[in-house]
Amino acid sequence: MTIGEAWFALPKNVRVLIIFTLTLSFWQIAVVAFSPPEILIPSPLKVIQRIISSPKFYFIHTWRTLYETVVGFGLAVVIGVVLSVLVISSRFLEETIYVLLVAFNGIPKVAIAPLFVVWMGTGLPPKFAIAATIAVFVIVIDLVLGFRSVERDMMDLARSLRGSPFKILLLIRFPHALPNLFAGMKAATTLALIGSIVGEFVAADRGLGYAIMVAQGSFDTVQIFASIALLGVMGMVLFFFVEWIERLVLPWHISMRDVHHAA
Amino acid sequence: MSVYVALRNASKIYPSPRGNIEAIHGIDLTIQSGEFLSIVGPSGCGKSTLLKCIAGLEQISSGSIQIRGEEVHGPPDNLGIVFQRDVLLDWRTVINNVLLPVEFRSGKRKEKRGRAMDLLRLFHLQGFEKRYPWELSGGMRQRVAICRALLDDPALLLMDEPFGALDALTRDELNIELQTIWEQTKKTVLFITHSISEAVLLSDRVAVMRKMPGEVVDILDIHLPRPRTLAMRETPEFGSLMRRIRMIFESLGVLRSQ
């Protein structure tokens, strides 16, 4: 057996674990070997120790950021689905909503964040709003594309069955567009997380973004790295959670068939 | 026999940036109740447009199309359609694909389940009702599409090159199955194909179309005895019918013998 064959003979989870462990080991070794000032770059062990030594601190801040992200994401999905349905339901709405949405998307959302704080204060609502605002666009784009990509013959069939526009949406367009919705949702998890952090950077008293801002003030690089690591894990968990749901909902879709068969 | 579908001087013009395109021109055609009528013609002769106009999916520009004496404005009642692509819904099992029409009219699935199972049995699909379309071969998928079209026992069945994407053997098989169903139910069928032999094999009459403009140039009666068999295709009668249609195409310049 060659090394390549042996490598791919391992279960995928084990391969991923090995890649992560090796990367972190290199980092650890490099830090020990060259001993850069800790204020620039701490060792991964230091970072992990910090998280373990103050679990409550990191739990509170992680929990807050997760909460903001999930609510913002949920809002983005609901608003995104509603907007997409409106866009495809009439030519007038299509033009109006699309033009406004594209114009709005041109604005860097980070620039609007302070405005949300002025409007909604420094609590949770502006974070929800920023996360949702950043995440909604990709959902609308993907879902509208899915709604529109129904084949001509399929629409003819639906019309010959004398289906109302609502029935056609429910029975044909929406299920047809579900893979697109999930693609949009997967991208939206990361975007919603960015939104929460932006919100916390602008004004917050809790959350990993807040923890990073505090650490920046005191040059506590270890805490910055610890927060970033937790954010990375959170982003991954959210992404794979959506993918897991996708697998449950779309066993019929071409991208899922191999997975489905293996299971 | 009564007239089921009647077209009088039906034309369809599509506006295009480079001038209007006349997809079909001055079509006069009647389909009797219980008749199996095929339309053969080259690609782009407007035969699919004709079918869509009869199905009420497109509006004619002039002339008239009537179904049982009523002018067609939108998809009529009592209609089944089969396209060249099966357009099955990937996310539904075979049985749920067949039952789709029930959901469009908010009916009860339970009441039609038995009927759906009967149709699947008739098309040799028993045991596959819980499968998904992607697990089926092309021929089986098209059979499911036919079952779906037949679910509500429509009086009129419109078929737009239904077997055009299948291999020759599967096509033969489905031709015979379609004939069997038609003999049992005597539906009015409009069958569009570009296969002369398929048209002759299945039809009571064959309408021959030309393109630019899309017109019906001739209608042939097919007086072959029924039920027809695949072996009949080797008989001199069958051969002479095929030759007549081919000669029409040759005279139009569609086919060249040399």
Gist?
The complex is a heterodimer of chains A (263) and B (258). Chain A has 263 residues and is mainly α.
State the main characteristics.
heterodimer, A: 263 residues, mainly alpha, MetI-like fold, 12 helices, 0% strand, B: 258 residues, alpha/beta, Rossmann fold, 2 domains, four-stranded antiparallel beta sheet, 10 strands, 34% helix
Please explain how this structure is put together.
The complex is a heterodimer of chains A (about 260) and B (about 260). Chain A has about 260 residues and is mainly α. Helices cover about 85% and strands about 0% of the residues of chain A. Chain A is built from 12 helices and no strands. In chain A, helix 4 (about 55-90) packs antiparallel against helix 9 (about 165-200) and helix 7 (about 125-150) packs antiparallel against helix 9 (about 165-200). In chain B, the strands form 2 sheets. Chain B has a 6-stranded mixed β-sheet with strand order 6-7-8-3-9-10, with helices on both faces. A 4-stranded antiparallel β-sheet of chain B has the order 2-1-4-5, with helices on one face. By secondary structure, chain B is an alpha/beta fold. In chain B, helix 7 (about 195-200) crosses helix 8 (about 235-250). Chain B is built from 8 helices and 10 strands. At the A-B interface, helix 8 and helix 9 of A face helix 3 of B.
